[in-house]
Structure formats: structure tokens, C-alpha cells
Amino acid sequence: MTQNLKNLDLSIELDKKMYKKKLKVLQYEMLNAQQFLLNNKIGLILVFEGMDAAGKGGAIKRLIERVDPRGYVVHPISAPQPHELRYNYLQRFWRKLPQHGQIAIFDRSWYGRVLVERIEGFATKDEWARAYEEVNQFEKLLTDGDYIIVKFWLHVSDEEQLKRFKEREQDPYKSWKLTDEDWRNREKTPQYIEAANDMFDKTDKKNAPWILVAGNDKKHARVQVLQETIAHIEQEAQKRGLHLTNVLDKSYLEDAESSSMEVLREQSKKEEQTK
């Protein structure tokens, strides 16, 4: 079934007590997964896209909170510099790929070609229309080798986004996050949703899946990002004949009811139902 934002349930919430319990366990699972990637020389590429103020930064922060800082890099992606425009648009991302065994997190990514560049007219229709296949080939080239790719779209309702904008506007420690462009982009929300759905339809592949995350409740979104990341690493490990051994105490995981294996079990059920 093709993924579509209209099917995303934004009402999902997570109890604060359960959030803290799940978060701690999952963060240690992520540390364990990082060591697995390092020992097996497998690179991990995580892509974060989504609406403004959807919680990408917060999710990334919780994802890396307990991992070895020597093993990851976060790339905040903005408009290309003048000298970068002299190259193919993918060139600047090739230069940011992680070493095998390392993690690269892209806060915005090469999908800007089919999102902001499409909507703002920075790319011609021919350029952004052919970019879907260019991106698919780019990602397949990586995943056919020693890379794992997971792509997240964090989404919030129009009402929740407005609420967060106003909170940022009033908070001197967060006001730097809010720009005139953010306010202007709200008027183009329907166009961004249309472009995002086209993107999912054309670039959601088994080797590089899109995971849609309901972001109205930040606690739920942060936990889901961690769960899905670890579960996908586990799946890719199994494909390689490897196993992501968990160093945490098993009884503690069961007590917390938050192991990423929950996600794997749910995915297995869905696969069985579609056969």
C-alpha cells in the first residue's frame, strides 16, 4: 500500500512515565547497535524530513544522546552554496557520506530537490521529475554495498505547528528557530503535502524505506524513531547473516516493554498478512 500522509494518525500519544522507561532502554539499544555497526564496518545513513517544527531536532537529539560521539555526524542541510551549484546536486551529499562503521544523520537531505526546490521553482519540472529515479539509483548503489538507509518523515497537524510557532516566538531560547520563511511556508502546506506524497510513492523502497512518524506528541515520535532505527538495523543484520546481540539485561527489557523487537514482530505480522 502506498504511504500517504492522510492515513497518518496524528492523535497517537505516549504516557510520560512509559516514555521515560522506553527512551532509556532504546537509547542503550542504540548504543549497542552503534557498536555492532562499527565492529562489522557497516555505515548507517538516517534521513530526516518533515514539516517545520515537527520535532526533527528533538528526535535526533534523543537518538544520539547515549551513543559514542566519535561515531556519528549530524549534517544540517540548507540551501547549496554558490560553488556547489556548479556541480550535480547530489555531489555535496556524496562528500558527506559516513565511513563504513560510522553514522551520518541528515537533517534535511537530497530530497530537497523534490520538495522545496520543486515548490519554490529552484529546479525546473524536468529536473525534479527525473530526480526520483536519480535518488533511487543513488540509494541503491549505497545499500547494495555496506550501507543501511532509513528515511523519516515527521509530520504535525496545521494546528499543532501553529501552536509550536507561537511558543517559539515567545521563548527567547527558541526564537532563533523561527524565521520569516517558516511563516511563509505555512501558506504552502498543501503543496508540501502533495509533494511529500509523490515522494513516498516514487522513492519508498525496501532497501531505503520511508517511515512516516506522527509528531503531534513529541514523546511518541522520539520513541518511534529509535524503535524503527534499531529494528531496521536488526533486519539488515539478519540479511547479512549477522545478529544484533543485545548487551542489556533481558529481564529489564521485558519489564520496560520497549525493546525494538516489538517493531520487528509487528512488521513480520504485516508481511504474513500480505502473503
TrEMBL record:
InterPro entries: P-loop_NTPase (IPR027417), Polyphosphate_phosphotransfera (IPR016898), PPK2-related (IPR022488). Keywords: Kinase, Transferase. Transmembrane segments: none annotated. Residues 14-239 form the Polyphosphate kinase-2-related domain. It comes from Lysinibacillus sphaericus OT4b.31. PANTHER family: POLYPHOSPHATE:AMP PHOSPHOTRANSFERASE (PTHR34383:SF3), POLYPHOSPHATE:AMP PHOSPHOTRANSFERASE-RELATED (PTHR34383). This is Polyphosphate kinase-2-related domain-containing protein. Residues 263-275 have a biased composition (Basic and acidic residues). GO terms for molecular function: polyphosphate kinase activity. It holds the Pfam family PPK2. It comes from the Bacteria. Residues 256-275 are annotated as: Disordered.
